[in-house]
Specification:
CATH superfamily of the largest domain in chain A: Periplasmic binding protein-like II
Largest sheet of chain B: 2 strands, antiparallel
Strand content of chain B: under 5%
CATH class of the largest domain in chain A: Alpha Beta
CATH class of the largest domain in chain B: Mainly Alpha
CATH architecture of the largest domain in chain A: 3-Layer(aba) Sandwich
Strand order of the largest sheet of chain B: 1-2
CATH architecture of the largest domain in chain B: Orthogonal Bundle
Structural class of chain A: alpha/beta
Largest sheet of chain A: 8 strands, mixed
Radius of gyration of chain A: 25 Å
Order of helices and strands of chain B: HEEHHHHHHHHHHH
Number of helices of chain B: 12
CATH topology of the largest domain in chain B: MetI-like fold
Number of strands of chain B: 2
Number of domains of chain B: 2
CATH topology of the largest domain in chain A: D-Maltodextrin-Binding Protein, domain 2
Distance between the termini of chain B: 24 Å
CATH superfamily of the largest domain in chain B: MetI-like
Oligomer: heterodimer
């Protein structure tokens, strides 16, 4: 390898001395410089791992099914490097989110396996797991390289891809709902950031119409799942329920649930005109175009809000965890992960793909390519917090979500009937929101319909 | 239609060259061969239409959630229909009402405006082909794009309100429960009036000249020409266009789905949206199929009546 022995010995001495320096010096000195350890000569742990994978699976073709999502864009940007390292050929099959969900259910119901890896979420997990479509991942998770670090993935996210105490997915993107507020306006009018729902109402009222074209608050509430998504954040702080964890029976007509719906309807009078049809892009857009002083929305909106190309309020926004209601302060978690199919003939290669894409060592590259954060180390890193001002609020809000999970509650019911229940809640709630029926009537109708679903 | 085959004869076809020679007499062959020839087409239609409708009916009689094994589907008889028609929580009846308003509120204006425009374009005007070409644009734009664009136009600070405010001094909330349905109906009228214009214009241009000349000699007024010559001669074409559009309107989905998704509340949940939500969102396949079966019955019955009307119009000509 070395034609000249002198060069070899010199390099050896240099490496030994460098090793001593590392041992003696402060931690910062550990960072390798180009002179000490040229990266192309010493294999990183990932490269060493990839070499083994390459030896076993070169030429394997992996089919991955995904819905359109920023994180998938990041993974696609990382794919060429993965293919180069492992020799595995990745074929992405990407489609719109609704179509993707239907396709996965169709595959599972008809017993076919066209994919090795699929993108999965808590709403779909119970059905896909019950149909025996998904590979249980617990034994696979016990067999990961050190640089993967499963424990570093936020617990709240990991739990959302577990069903009946079995892990079926490795999360790569998660979101929670928190309060966005205009720091500049709050400073200008010397207003405190609200910490209770009563204060949110007062603050929204204060800002509504305060400046030309300014509303108090923005959020999504289009009829259907989007209404359920938003409303589920309001239900628990008001002491409401979807299903009573003690009895397992629907609790949609209790007073807390009705209160939360009435609150949401009342709050909407300080929202932009037409909010009853607002989908999430419109809710985000109203805030990003400076038309709302606050927004109660998904943390996934934060990168957009801070993007000066699409948002006039970039750099002027503060983030706070969800305010408290009469029964406490709670939020929820949603998200996406990768699952393996039971019928895959390339499970080892599929697991190598999931390990590489969701590992701790590649998380920075994933974030830089536009992926949504899912690891505690990244969220709590002061350097990252300085760069991404919403990381701290995400961490605090996830604690609120964990408080809810501890009580056996959640914004998504992990049961196969959830999609039907979500649709019932989203339609009846929206009818009350549009003034067709009262909140109490909506709650009674939901309760009766969900009872009927449960009785089958 | 298979019935028409009974009187059909193949002209100048050398049937005697066919392999069946010897088994059947010439007249028998001429009766059998058409049926043999139509078998492939009939098989395709049977599999695609009849078989799928049969399955749809079967699925409407079970309780099955898409995403649960088919073996777990429970036979419930007519329960799905009963729930849809009589349950106090069912919004199916509202949906039928909304669909009726939608069909009447779009079909009639489209026909009237379309006929009017066709009559105008039938005169000797400069640039008729240019106008006709422009009128095609709304039809060829992808429906989901139409929905997206008009959703923006109808937003509170959008293009529609700019004109409404300029001319009438009010700024309505098209996203609200009261105006969401009129908004999607206006889009339908914008998109599909040209359909009537194109078909009826072609019909007007093909009308014979002689009846008009004779009537003019008798001193008929323009209204009399229209009422007693144009309208009767055009009646079959008007009815045909109406039947085609009627069947299409009852299936309208993409524009409403993109604009309002059936909301707010269920203000724009027409029958196709109802079917989509029940079957693919709530995944209650039995209930969704039951609505589909009822929609098919409605479409077939009303189309049958319209076709009868068409036959009569032709007969009277």
């Amino acid at each position: 390898m070395f034609a000249n022995k002198k060069v070899f010995y010199n390099l050896m001495v240099l490496l030994i001395v460098a090793a001593f320096l590392v041992g003696c010096g402060p931690q910062e000195a550990a960072e390798p410089t180009e002179e000490e350890a040229p990266p192309e000569e010493v294999a990183t742990p990932i490269e060493a791992w990839a070499a083994e994978v390459h030896a076993q699976h070169e030429g394997t073709k992996l089919r991955v099914s995904a819905a359109t999502h920023p994180s998938i864009e990041a993974f696609k940007a990382m794919t060429p490097r993965f293919e180069e390292l492992t020799g595995i050929d990745v074929v992405w099959d990407e489609m719109e989110e609704g179509a993707h969900g239907q396709k996965m259910l169709l595959e599972a119901t008809s017993g076919t396996t066209s994919y090795d890896v699929i993108m999965n979420c808590p709403e779909r997990l119970p059905n896909l797991a019950d149909l025996g479509y998904l590979e249980p991942l617990d034994s696979w998770l016990n067999n990961t390289p050190d640089w993967f670090d499963n424990d570093d993935i936020l617990l709240a996210y990991r739990e959302m891809l577990a069903y009946e105490d079995v892990n079926y997915g490795v999360p790569f993107a998660g979101e929670t709902v928190f309060l966005f507020y205009r720091k500049d306006l709050f400073d200008k009018y010397d207003v405190e950031v609200p910490t209770t729902f009563d204060e949110v109402m007062e603050t929204a009222e204060f800002f509504h119409g305060k400046e030309d074209g300014l509303s108090g608050v923005s959020f999504r509430c289009r009829s259907g799942w989007e209404f359920t998504y938003e409303w589920s954040i309001f239900i628990f702080p008001f002491g409401g329920l979807m299903v009573d964890p003690a009895t397992g029976k629907p609790g949609l007509n209790n007073s807390g649930t009705v209160d939360s719906l009435e609150y949401m309807i009342e709050l909407s009078q300080y929202a932009p005109v037409g909010i009853e049809s607002y989908s999430f892009p419109e809710a985000w857009d109203a805030f990003m175009q400076g038309k709302a002083a606050m927004m109660i929305e998904a943390s996934a909106a934060a990168p957009e809000v801070e993007n000066p190309d699409s948002s006039v309020v970039a750099g002027k926004v503060g983030y706070a965890p969800m305010p408290a209601g009469p029964a406490g302060a709670y939020s929820g978690v949603w998200g996406w992960g990768f699952s393996m199919t039971v019928g895959s003939e390339n499970k080892d290669a599929a697991w190598a793909f999931i390990t590489y894409m969701t590992g701790k060592a590649t998380h920075q590259e994933y974030i830089e390519n536009g992926g949504i954060v899912s690891r505690a180390s990244m969220l709590s890193d002061p350097k990252q917090q300085a760069q991404y001002s919403y990381y701290q609020a995400i961490l605090e809000t996830l604690k609120q979500a964990a408080d809810l999970q501890k009580q056996g509650l959640g914004v998504v019911l992990m049961i196969p009937e959830w999609s039907e229940i979500s649709e019932i809640m989203g339609t009846e709630g929206s009818r009350a929101f549009a003034g067709e029926i009262t909140a109490q009537e909506a709650a009674d109708s939901m309760q009766a319909q969900v009872e009927e679903v449960f009785s089958r | 239609m298979p019935g028409a085959l009974l009187t059909y004869r193949l002209p100048n076809v050398p049937i005697q060259d066919m392999k069946m020679r010897g088994f059947l007499s010439r007249s028998q062959r001429s009766k059998v061969v058409p049926y043999v020839l139509i078998v492939p087409a009939f098989a395709v239609v049977f599999v695609l239409a009849v078989f799928s409708v049969f399955w749809l009916i079967r699925m409407s009689l079970v309780q099955w959630t898409f995403g649960v094994e088919w073996q777990e589907a429970a036979w419930v008889g007519l329960d799905n229909f009963q729930w849809l028609l009589f349950s106090e929580h069912s919004t199916f009846r509202d949906s039928v009402g909304l669909t009726t308003v939608y069909v009447a509120g779009t079909l009639i204006p489209e026909l009237v405006i379309g006929f009017g425009l066709a009559l105008l374009l039938n005169r000797q005007i400069i640039g008729r082909s240019v106008y006709t070409a422009i009128l095609i644009i709304p039809i060829v734009v992808m429906p989901s794009m139409v929905g997206l664009v008009w959703r923006l136009y109808f937003s509170y600070d959008g293009l529609v309100n700019f004109f409404v405010e300029t001319f009438f001094g009010v700024k309505p909330n098209w996203y609200g429960a009261e105006l969401a349905l009129p908004a999607v109906m206006l889009v339908d009228i914008w998109e599909w009036t040209p359909f009537f214009v194109l078909i009826l214009l072609a019909g007007l241009q093909a009308l014979p000249r002689e009846p008009y000349d004779a009537a003019l000699v008798d001193g008929a007024s323009n209204w009399q020409l229209f009422r007693h010559i144009t309208l009767p001669l055009m009646a079959p074409l008007v009815l045909t266009a109406t039947i085609l559009r009627f069947m299409d309107i009852l299936r309208i989905f993409a524009v409403i789905f993109v604009m309002f998704g059936g909301g707010p509340g269920d203000a724009t949940t027409t029958l196709p949206i109802y079917i989509y939500k029940a079957t693919l969102v709530a995944r209650n396949v039995g209930r969704g199929s039951a609505v589909s079966v009822m929609l098919i019955i409605i479409i077939v019955t009303l189309t049958f009546l319209l076709v009868r009307l068409l036959e009569r119009a032709k007969f009277e000509m």
